[in-house]
Amino acid sequence: MNRALRLILFLVLVVGGGLVIGFLTMPGAWYAGLAKPSFNPPNWLFAPVWTVLYILIAIAGWRVWHADACGWPMRLWWGQLALNFIWSPVFFAAHQIGIALVIILLLLAAIFAFIATAWRLDRVAAWLFVPYAAWVAFASLLNASLFALN
Known about the structure:
There is one protein chain. The chain is mainly alpha-helical. It has helices at residues 3-24, 29-32, 43-67, 72-93, 97-121, 123-128, 130-149. Helix 1 (3-24) packs antiparallel against helix 3, helix 1 packs parallel to helix 4 and helix 3 (43-67) packs antiparallel against helix 4 (72-93). The longest helix is centred in the middle third of the chain and has 25 residues, at 43-67. The radius of gyration is 16 Å and the shape is globular. The mean pLDDT is 97. One of its GO terms (cellular component) is membrane.
């Protein structure tokens, strides 16, 4: 399989998976009724931010896959993707803010571990995860605040 086709597959998996999960677990009345911190962004911001981040995540995974498909960076990439994809159903569908907080903190740790291990293998892939780390750090603070307020 050529590199371009692999990139398309990574994009379909990550962006498509993220969009499907986002569509299936859209914030509803439950989320609207939660007490929110003053720094809570408007709901419309999440979809474009996550779309861009999912593109970066897919490209990073594709790059690492080509460098070492079975190494630690790739294992961490799959782990962070699983944690990322499970957070929305736990938070928005199951309404488990505390469990979602644990998941997002594990996700943040997996992101930092990916950056650290990918750095030696592919610095571009590691840098592609920096905006993701920043957003998930912010989302962790938001999740913790929602937990404390509700």
